[in-house]
Write a structure and sequence with these properties.
The complex is a heterodimer. Chain A is built from 18 helices and four strands. Chain A has helices spanning about 5-20, 20-55, 65-75, 90-95, 105-115, 130-155, 175-185, 185-200, 200-205, 210, 215-220, 225-260, 270-300, 305-315, 315-325, 340-350, 360-380, 385-390; strands at about 55-60, 80-85, 100-105, 120-125. Chain A has a four-stranded mixed β-sheet with strand order 2-1-3-4. In chain A, helix 8 (about 185-200) crosses helix 12, helix 12 packs antiparallel against helix 13 (about 270-300) and helix 13 runs parallel beside helix 17. Chain B contains ten helices and ten strands. In chain B, helix 3 packs across helix 4 and helix 3 runs parallel beside helix 5 (about 135-145). In chain B, the strands form two sheets. Chain B has a six-stranded mixed β-sheet, sandwiched between helices. Chain B has a four-stranded antiparallel β-sheet with strand order 2-1-4-5. The relative contact order of chain B is 0.18. In chain B, strand 1 and strand 2 form a beta hairpin. The radius of gyration of chain B is 18 Å and the shape is globular. Chain B is α/β, with parallel strands linked by helices. The chains are: A mainly alpha, B alpha/beta. The interface of A and B includes residues 9 and 222 of A.
Chain lengths: ~400, ~240
């Protein structure tokens, strides 16, 4: 009987065992659902925020002092003036309101005298989520101010352009598109997590769990090459991890396709080609991550120890993901053959609409599979050590 | 046939096995008798090929266990110290998994599985997952798994440990059956009645060394004690150490 037949026997048994293990199935589902869930929530929040800024409900305190400003504000699209809270500062501090405008009771008098009339904008600039709204309000009040200034100049027989020596023109390259890029930059990280968590339980259960139950000793008494044993267990964990990545991707893409991008002013579409490209990156990576899990769990003394090692290890593939949200990894395809980092860089390129060449996918795939192979061989070596077989 | 010569094994400063040699012929039952911590399990682990001895040779039907453990394992069936089963698998699945790992498949595997299930009285439990099985039922499944490749040499580490009276009887019956089939059976125990009831030959181990070997009668004669238990206590040196 050759090694391949042994491998298939082990793989079949581990898959059957894993499919009956609630914890393994739960970890597969968790890996699959995590990403689409986070994306769904994230985009709903973003869409709501944009809508908030568009349909502006603006509390103005002392609106009665500035009837002309009030009329002007009401004429702007999407603006509704609401009653201001009794204590505007407290309301903003306690997050009951994003922004409150306070008009001084001397507003009309100052306007009449032609001196700057004070308008207070109460906001908390540490709050990211209220920023679009605050900006919109500031722009509105600035526009009103400019309009009044022009009228005053005209009344004095001066052309308003005299007071505008410079004309600033915003050339918006891709504010919304860039924001989307920022949001999507977390996707490769989430896919890595899906690949890791999907096969985590079955990977630990079939190695550290096998020893903890005392079934490793009888198993090693059967004439199975250790490499076939390690490879079978690795492929079983990989199957779970890949299933997790696959579900995760398909669900995430469906979520992304349901987001009303045009409402957000973004042109965005995930093509099937991009989906396939991401899968071509993430599936080999899932095989690598499963190999890491299996090697570490073979080494660990117990199920619990394996879990705590992997709890620490989870941060390693997360690091480049976290870095990539600050320093974009896109456009650096030379990273391709570095496991995990390569997948981040290439995925960022795919999502950025600059798909890398096939050679890069091959380089990335070969690199992670080779690394996985080394880990499986090392795990097989561990299975020959008395300390590993009988515990330490 | 099992031949062990000059076996030695240390774990750091602890000498678990110092000098163990014995032979077990086909068609006989050999009992490895000794108090807890005498080195029985370590000896059996070396015999099974999973632990490398520091010195000594082990041959199973002529195959060198140290040089070719996997080759030698084909001739051996072992019930290890840890019965370790897969809680989510049924007895039938356990037997079939190990059968396949031994390269048995198809009709032959189905036939052997059915045979073992009925021989061990596991038919009614065959399709139930083993989680929740009693100690005796677990031992039976572990034993069936070890016998699926029909080994000629059977090694049992404390086979009646944790078994009730009925299961113990069934186990003894099985050991006799295996002997009748011409198998070589080696089992370890610290229980006197068991050894005297079953064994053709007894190997007494104490502190990692074989202190006596022979038939029950020979041991009685050697020590001058009528009772085999007294003989054992004398041989294991428990009296002089003041353990008892």
């Amino acid at each position: 009987m050759n090694g391949l037949a042994h491998l298939l026997t082990v793989l079949k048994k581990e898959l059957m065992d894993g499919a009956r293990d609630r914890r393994s199935i739960r970890s597969l589902l968790f890996g699959a659902i995590m990403t689409p869930l986070i994306f769904g929530v994230m985009f709903t929040v973003v869409a709501n925020r944009e809508r908030d800024a568009k349909d502006l409900k603006l509390p103005v305190a002392g609106i009665e002092y500035a009837p002309a400003l009030a009329d002007w504000l009401r004429q702007q699209t999407g603006v509704t003036i609401t009653r201001a809270p009794a204590d505007p500062m407290a309301a903003v501090r306690e997050r009951k309101e994003d922004v409150v405008v306070i008009i001084d009771k001397d507003f009309a008098k100052d306007m009449a005298r032609g001196v700057p009339a004070p308008v207070k904008l109460v906001a908390d600039m540490t709050r990211n989520e209220s920023r679009p709204k605050v900006t919109r309000v500031r722009n509105l009040i600035n526009s009103y101010s400019t309009e009044i200034a022009s009228l005053r100049l005209v009344a004095r027989g001066v052309a308003p352009v005299v007071a505008r020596p410079l004309a600033i023109e915003d050339v918006e390259v891709s504010s919304a598109q860039q924001r989307l890029g920022q949001l999507l930059s977390i996707l490769p990280l989430l896919l890595v997590m899906a690949g890791l968590t999907g096969g985590l339980q079955i990977g630990i259960d079939s190695t550290a769990g096998e020893r903890e139950r005392g079934s490793l000793e009888p198993l090693l008494l059967s004439p199975v090459p250790r490499l076939a044993l390690a490879a079978g267990k690795w492929l079983a964990a990989s199957t779970f991890a890949c299933a997790s990545v696959l579900f995760s991707m398909v669900l995430t893409v469906n979520v992304l396709r349901r987001v009303p991008w045009q409402d957000l002013g973004i042109r965005f579409r995930v093509t099937d080609g991009e989906l396939m490209s991401l899968l071509a990156l993430e599936l080999p990576l899932a095989l690598f991550l499963s190999a890491v899990v299996m090697f570490v769990s073979t080494f660990a003394r117990s199920f619990k120890e394996a879990q705590s090692y992997i709890g620490l290890l989870i941060f390693v593939p997360m690091l480049p993901g976290i870095v990539s949200t600050m320093v974009p990894l896109s456009g650096r395809p030379w990273m391709a053959p570095i496991p995990v980092l390569g997948q981040y860089a290439l995925a960022a390129d795919v999502l950025g609409g600059k798909p890398p060449g096939v050679a890069y996918y091959i380089a990335a795939g070969v690199a992670v599979l080779a690394a996985a192979g080394v880990l499986v061989i090392l795990a097989a070596r561990l299975l020959r050590q008395e300390k590993v077989i009988f515990g330490r | 046939m099992i031949e062990i010569q000059g076996l030695r094994k240390s774990f750091g400063p602890v000498e678990a096995v110092r000098d163990v040699s014995f032979r077990a012929e086909d068609g006989t039952v050999v009992g490895l008798l000794g108090p807890n911590g005498a080195g029985k399990t370590t000896t059996l682990r070396m015999l099974s090929g999973l632990m490398r001895p520091d010195a000594g040779t082990i041959r199973v039907d002529g195959a060198d266990v140290v040089a070719d453990p996997i080759g030698a394992q084909r001739h051996m069936g072992l019930l290890p110290d840890s019965r370790g089963l897969y809680p989510r698998l049924t007895p039938r699945e356990h037997i079939e998994y190990f059968g396949r790992l031994h390269g048995i498949d198809g009709k032959q595997l189905a036939g052997r599985t059915d045979g073992l299930l009925s021989r061990l009285g596991l038919e009614t439990l065959a399709a139930r997952r083993v989680e929740g099985f009693s100690q005796g039922e677990r031992t039976k499944v572990a034993l069936a798994r070890a016998l699926v490749h029909q080994p000629r040499n059977i090694i049992l580490d404390e086979p009646t440990n944790g078994l009730d009276v009925m299961s113990t009887r069934a186990m003894r019956e099985l050991i006799r059956m295996l002997r009748a089939d011409g198998c070589c059976v080696v089992f370890s125990s610290h229980i006197m009645q068991e050894v005297s009831a079953l064994c053709d030959r007894i190997v007494v181990i104490a502190q990692g060394t074989v202190v006596a070997e022979g038939t029950p009668d020979e041991l009685r004669r050697q020590t001058g004690r009528e009772n085999l238990e007294d003989a054992f206590v004398a041989l294991a040196g428990l009296e002089t150490e003041g353990v008892l």
